[in-house]
Amino acid sequence: MMNCCTLCPRKCKANRTDGKTGFCRQTDELRVARAALHFWEEPCISGSKGSGTVFFSGCTLGCIYCQNRSIALGESGKAITPQRLTQIFFELEEQGAHNINLVTPTHYVPTIAECIANAKQKGITIPFVYNTGGYEKADTLKLLDGLIDIYMPDFKYWSESTAKNFSFAADYPQAAKKAIDEMVRQCPECVYDDEGIMQKGVIVRHMLLPKHVYEAKRILAYLHESYGEKIVYSIMSQYTPMNLFDTFDELNRKVTKKEYDSLVNYAIELGIENAYIQDGEAASESFVPPFDNFGV
């Protein structure tokens, strides 16, 4: 599937098996920048023992404000074999991870699917989490049907112009809607263990951007109208300016308390109950781990 790659909505058609790259900047060779326990996900994912997080190099979005920019641009990461990735899954399980958390995995889906199937055949017992920016093709997600236990997508933008300006992807809103539909089809209900750790389900994240409260409200309204309480909502305030922008001055500051409170109050008005919110301390670069090939 990678000799004319159309795994993501960009449909670059790059011959990645021949060493060529498309928007994601990656060939068909697996590259991972970090594999370790991570404690800064939602409580039902990180729990008390941490989420076994695997950060893949490259990204299909390349948001201009990205906090994981070094891996999104493919500047960090180590090439590994599929056999090594499967081994990493078991190492994280042995460390006590509540789950295996696959971060920005879209451009490696066929290989990852094989590795998950292999790990499950060999007896791995913890859930697999698909952690994505939401810019997905439903047909690609279907390759993971029965393999992924928990989907954790972003729904970043309601406006095509915002998506184009910030992530070079005007088709993001429509792609995210179709992708989340497929995710909910595969995982139609949330299931938890006795400790409150999610075993099955869909968590949809929205990170509020400065001056974009209206857009965020449209997203929450759409999600609640479409899925009600079948999904978990994660309403995030952690936007952290990583660069200085001339064209988009609003991105040069954090979200204000007034902006975030307005969004949370709107969620309450909609009747959303199954949700996570963040306090003001969330907007910190401390959430960004070092991408130094640890655990790879």
Query: How many strand segments?
Result: 10
What integer is the average pLDDT? Answer: 95
Count of helical regions: 9
SSE order, one letter for each helix or strand: EHEHEHEHEHEHHEEHEHE
Level of helix content?
25-40%
Q: Which structural category fits the helices and strands?
A: alpha/beta
User: Strand count, sense and closure of the main sheet?
Assistant: 10 strands, mixed
Radius of gyration: 18 Å
Cα-to-Cα separation, first versus last residue: 25 Å
Q: Which percent band covers the strand fraction?
A: 15-25%
- Globally, the shape reads globular
- Unreliable residue stretches: none
Notes on the structure:
The chain has about 300 residues and is an alpha/beta fold. It is about 30% helix and about 15% strand. The chain has 9 helices and 10 strands. Strands 1, 2, 3, 4, 5, 6, 7, 8, 9 and 10 form a 10-stranded mixed beta sheet that branches. Helix 3 crosses helix 4. The longest helix has 15 residues, at about 170-185.
